[in-house]
Every structure is written in C-alpha cells, then in structure tokens.
Amino acid sequence: MRELVEDIAKALVDKPDEVVVNVTEDKGVTILKLTVADDDMGKVIGKQGRIAKAIRTVVRSVANKEKIKVTLEII
C-alpha cells in the first residue's frame, strides 16, 4: 500500500525525492500520511481535490481487495 501511494505521488510531482509516506495504525485502520514538497502540494491535490480524491479511490479499492481499512492523509 505504501509503495502504491509513493509511486503515484512521485509520478505527479517535480521533486520526487521529497515524497515521503509514513504508515501508522490506529484501531484497526491503516493511516497513510503522504508528505510532498510545498511547491508540489497543488499537483498532488489537484483542482478542487480531484487528484487527491482519485488517489484515495485507488487506495481504497486495493484495500477492499485485501480486506483492510485504509485512510490517506496528505500533509
């Protein structure tokens, strides 16, 4: 899951070296925290959050297949 989010984010940004995904778990929910460079934040979020929503949809789809609960936070 971590690698999936990392690969998607690196493909979108200008500074792929600054993409970091931290994974934590809380009450049975896996929390993925995506951090990118300040300049690249808009590229990951997109207009009206469309790209962020699309990334979350892909992550949830994979999570459903693996029968786990996942939340993606973009910091």
From TrEMBL:
Family named by the database record: Belongs to the KhpA RNA-binding protein family.
Keywords attached to this entry: Cell shape, Cell wall biogenesis/degradation, Chaperone, Cytoplasm, RNA-binding
Location in the cell: Cytoplasm
InterPro entries attached to this UniProt entry: KH_dom-like_a/b, KH_sf_prok-type, KhpA
Record's protein name: RNA-binding protein KhpA
Encoding gene per record: khpA
Role: A probable RNA chaperone. Forms a complex with KhpB which binds to cellular RNA and controls its expression. Plays a role in peptidoglycan (PG) homeostasis and cell length regulation.
Subunit structure: Forms a complex with KhpB.
